Amino acid sequence: MGRLLTALRWIVYVTAVVALNFPVIVTLVTSLKSAGELSVNPGLWINQPTFENYLGVLQITDRLNIYAYLGNSLVASLIGSLLAILLAFPAAYAIARGEFGQRFILPTIVNLRAVPLIIFAIPIYMMFQVLGLLDTQFGLGLILTIVNVPLALIILVNAIADVPIELDEAARIDGASTLQIMWRIIRPVARSALTTAAIFGFITAWNEFLFGLMLTTNNAVPVTVGASFFFAASGGGVQWGLASAVMIVGALPPAILGLLAYRQIGGSLTAGAVKG
Amino acid sequence: MPASPATTSAAQRLEWRLLASPLLIFLLLFLGLPTLVDLVYSVSQVDFETLRSPALSGFSNYLDVLSDPGFWEAAWFSLRFGLVTAIAECLLGLILAIFLAPLLAKRSWLMAPLMLPLMVAPAMIGLMYRLVLNEFVGPVPNYLFAWFGDSPAFLDADTAFWTLCVVETLQWTPFALLLFYAAYRSIPDEVRQAAAVDGAGAWQTLLRVELPLMAPTIGVGAFIRFIDGFRVFDNVYTLVGSGPGGSTTSMSIYIYEAFFKNGEIGKAIAASVILFIASFGVLFGLIGTARRRTA
């Protein structure tokens, strides 16, 4: 009976993994088929695996420049994740230690995640037009910062609150200033939380689509938006193998980061929900 | 000479404010200012030519939005989509979390493949389903044809809503699973043992002890998923856009299309403000209840 139940659990587990990842599996399989094979074999089996689609993707440089899309995503996501931490860390320190902002500021910022960002999109579009930030990697990075701030803040506040306050007090007796305590005492202790916030912010930023779609046209198009061009632009119908390879390449950076840091990511995904 | 406690704490308070100020200024600039612009433009006559010099025009934009059947259809789509997907994700996530708990507890890496969908951009997932559901190269229609001799239209006006619900649910069930699994694991073993001593069977323990202890987490999870479902944009947009006959226009897509496709700026902004008021109403309601509960 016990063994039967365990077998059943494994069956359910494997079924769940396949069902939840089905679109990714199909795309991966399709990306490894030649155009000829795909036209006669749309199933999940590959007769003759080939990397020609990936080679094809890497050779595109004229119209749809995958390198540029990936580069834009990389730069904007780095800005979006690092700037969010740079802004949130001192604020988190003040909130965790200063009896400050806990009643109104913290809950408001944390719950910003519950606000549909589209409501700010049009004014931001207008502001960016005035400031010359439309279609720039920096402009997109600024918006991705906003997207990342709430979760970065809650992760860091929780982490700093867990640091014993005796550490601060001892340093203060030794004559350290608040800034020195923050940088020399808190930052090293909270390093894993900072890393988690950075990784999670990078993944979130890389996967963002709405603002990439609205705020970029040419020079700063991120890969989430660029990938959709492969479905719309080709005159002779969609080149499915090529488009699949593009999607796999575009999905790979956050997927690898996420799988490497799945424990921390899981923790931060649930952190806001439990303590926010 | 030691400073008096009063001045120390005043100086200290100033320091805390200074530390928090970069973040607050940033948010005021990129969220506060846009809110203000939203409010002013929502009561103005504005088009792309007069973008920087809006003329006040009263509440006609709001009347335009509120009398537009498209707005109400979008609100209804978002509401249904949010409810259906939140319930489906939480139910599936809860069942998987509890049923798979013995496996996951022994081999925690098993969680990683389950979490993978959370790492993929929803926009990409939407594109991937174009392939999955394509009648020539997609495996789903092909297997259905091979096995049953027929394959339904997945993305016509009648079926697109449910197809999108499945797409959304399959991507975000792992979120609920992760959240509920953490809650399930955090129930102390003594509680289960006490229930066993009292003669409760596995089902009774689950229904009378474990689920009630998990209820707050389930509530929070359902709420987060509802909000995310309500504001859905990426996967719907990349898979079907606003759908046949506008049948999959969510609130976010409605605002996006009013602005970028139709150039109805005033209408788009008035709809934004209505959504803004609704979501902040919910938000502060929640903060208020949370505070009363802890107070």
β-sheet strand percentage of chain A: under 5%
Quote the average pLDDT of chain B: 88
**Domain tally of chain B:** 2
CATH topology of chain A: MetI-like fold
By CATH reckoning, the class of chain A would read Mainly Alpha
Helix/strand order of chain A, N-terminal first: HHHHHHHHHHHHHHH
Q: What is the CATH topology descriptor of the largest domain in chain B?
A: MetI-like fold
Give the CA-CA distance, first to last residue of chain A.
Answer: 42 Å
Task: Determine the CATH superfamily of chain A.
Answer: MetI-like
**Chain pair forming the biggest interface:** A-B, 97 and 100 residues
Name of the CATH architecture of chain A: Orthogonal Bundle
Report on the architecture of this protein:
The complex is a heterodimer of chains A (276) and B (295). In chain A, helix 2 (22-31) crosses helix 14, helix 4 packs across helix 14 and helix 5 (66-97) runs antiparallel to helix 13. Chain A contains 15 helices and no strands. Chain A is mainly alpha-helical and 276 residues long. Chain A has a single domain (66-227, 243-275), classed as MetI-like fold, CATH 1.10.3720.10. The radius of gyration of chain A is 23 Å and the shape is globular. With 295 residues, chain B is mainly α. Chain B has 2 domains: 1-33, no CATH class; 61-294, Orthogonal Bundle (MetI-like fold), CATH 1.10.3720. Chain B has 12 helices and 2 strands, in the order H-E-E-H-H-H-H-H-H-H-H-H-H-H. Chain B has helices at 5-42, 60-66, 69-106, 111-119, 122-132, 139-148, 160-185, 189-197, 202-230, 234-240, 251-261, 265-294; strands at 44-45, 55-56. Chain B is globular. The interface between A and B is large, with 97 and 100 residues.
Write the layout of secondary structure elements.
The complex is a heterodimer of chains A (276) and B (295).
Chain A: H1 2-20, H2 22-31, H3 35-40, H4 52-59, H5 66-97, H6 105-110, H7 118-131, H8 137-161, H9 165-173, H10 178-189, H11 191-207, H12 210-215, H13 223-232, H14 240-260, H15 262-275
Chain B: H1 5-42, E1 44-45, E2 55-56, H2 60-66, H3 69-106, H4 111-119, H5 122-132, H6 139-148, H7 160-185, H8 189-197, H9 202-230, H10 234-240, H11 251-261, H12 265-294
Antiparallel strand pairs in B: 1-2
Helix pairs in contact in B: 1-12, 2-12, 3-7, 3-9, 3-11, 4-7, 5-10, 7-9, 8-9, 11-12
